[in-house]
Amino acid sequence: MKDKAYFLTKAQENYPELNFTVLTPDITEFIATNGDSVLLDLGEHAVGHFSFTFDRVNIFVDSPVRLNIKFGEDIREINDDFSQYNGTLSNTWLQEEIINLDFPQNITMPRRYACRFIKITVERTTRPIRLSDFSFKASTSADISVLKPANTTDDLLKKIDRVATNTLKECMQTFFEDGPKRDRRLWIGDLRLEALTNYYTFKNTDIVKRCLYLFAAGECNNIGFLPSFVYETPYYHSGATHIEDYALLYVVSVCDYYEHTGDIDVLNDLLEICKSQLESFSATLNENLITTKQDGWFAFIDWCPGLECLTALQGVYLYTLERFSDVLKTIGDKDYQKYSALISKIRSACKTLFYDKNANAFINDYDNKQLSVHSQVWMILGGVIEGEEAKKLLLYCLHNKNFKQPVTPYMRHYVIEAMLKLQMKAEAIQYLKTFWGGMVEIGVDTFWEAYIPNDLEFSPYNDRMINSLCHAWSCTPSYFIRKYGL
Ligand code: RAM
User: Fold this and answer.
1) Which amino acid residue places its CA nearest to atom 3 of ligand 1?
2) What phi and psi values does residue 469 have, to the nearest 5 degrees?
């Protein structure tokens, strides 16, 4: 019987080994008195634990010493004034500590940080003090020795690939984290893109297996959807959000895994859960096979403000049906016919009901007829429109300000996927260079959670300080560059 305990045991069997590296900043010693501060640069983004030694200079410290220690994924974060933070997520994600040290000692800070820079400010001391032996023990489960350089001659693509693999490496801990600074948990949408990139870079298929089982152990909501995220530290906990597009993309992630590994045992273990995600989704369709909004629903698609998601969600459904029915056909599962018969019916329903000749695009009453790149991209990925017609539509919407545009690297991944599906390799390279290359130009070590060229203050959470600057879903340029030989 495959129950939660079974899935958790499978997840545990695939627990990855962490590899540790000790990084030391350029500065080795710092003598300070009240108000002095020192900025340490690790030279690269790292995830792990910070240690240092605190000692007297001459006269013994006769009272505790208070330090403010700030960790920044980039220098802008170090210079931010966290007291001014005004975002929608908790400010406890901001990496800043006040510590009081009673006497000279070597200290390893207990919490894990994601940073390249560390700023220590001496808030209070009655005597000069010496801080030294700075070291940062960084962890990752990515095996760097497996990574080959990307096979491209283009310098910018090489740089983009390096930052992308670095981003993935940092997010690969005991599972695929979305971001090692925030939220530090396993989300389905992020997992799918991390797994894809991992297949072409660090090639650790066990960690993908582990993550798929971690979700299989999750608690479904009343509609039957898997949780969109799970925690595994300090013990397993199933997340309370159930995003519809993520529930579908779980099925796609299982298909990706099977197609990449041919591991039929895992597929058999997860098959019923995949089917149940599609069954649950089909219960949301109206008489025309169009998905409708349900109470308490949350479709994600992108962090684009004000985005209406139902057309895109319908595309995700088609995309999932196609991938899943292909896998079922390969393994000789008779349900294949049921799913593939649905695909053509739903595609023609979408074409008839959503395609608007005047708008020259797919729009949907349930989306208040909103124009978005998201809807067009997912209609393309769902196979509702193809060939030259689809190319024209994609270029038109990407260059038209009346269409809502993607804001996360996550959604931009799917834009590129659509381009490659339509054989638009040159456009895909251009798009990748403009967007991810734009981040490379501003000197990032890892790719960000959200990035809008010309608006570096953008945040989905109302304050840029909380944004994650090393975010899993941004790592897919390496997948595109390596898989498609860009
Ligand atoms: C954010 C995280 C995560 C994403 C969800 C939908 O909280 O950054 O990466 O999957 O949103």
Assistant:
1) 178
2) -100, 5
Closest ligand 1 atom to the C-alpha of 190?
A: 10
Averaged confidence pLDDT in the chain: 97
Evaluate if residue 363 carries a pLDDT over 90.
Answer: yes
Q: If you count them, how many residues does the chain have? A: 486
For ligand 1, the distance from its centroid to the CA atom of residue 335, given in whole angstroms, is 33
> Does residue 1 register a pLDDT over 70?
no
Where does 284-424 have alpha helices with state H?
310-331, 335-354, 373-381, 387-398, 409-421
Tokens of 105: 């000692």
Paired tokens of 191: 């997992």
The stretch 119-128 carries a mean pLDDT of 97
pLDDT of residue 298: 86
Hey, what long-range contacts does 3-11 have (CB within 8 A, 24 or more apart)? 4/217, 7/213, 7/214, 7/216, 7/217, 7/269, 8/213, 8/214, 8/217, 8/236, 10/209, 10/210, 10/213, 10/269, 11/210, 11/211, 11/213, 11/214, 11/217, 11/232
| Gap from CA of 307 to ligand 1 centroid (Å) | 16
For residue 438, the Cα-to-chain-centroid distance in whole angstroms is: 19
Query: pLDDT tens across 405-460, in order?
Result: 999 999 999 999 999 999 999 999 999 999 999 999 999 999 999 999 999 999 99
Residue nearest to atom 5 of ligand 1 (CA): 187
Whether ligand 1 lies within 6 angstroms of the CB of 177 is answered as: no
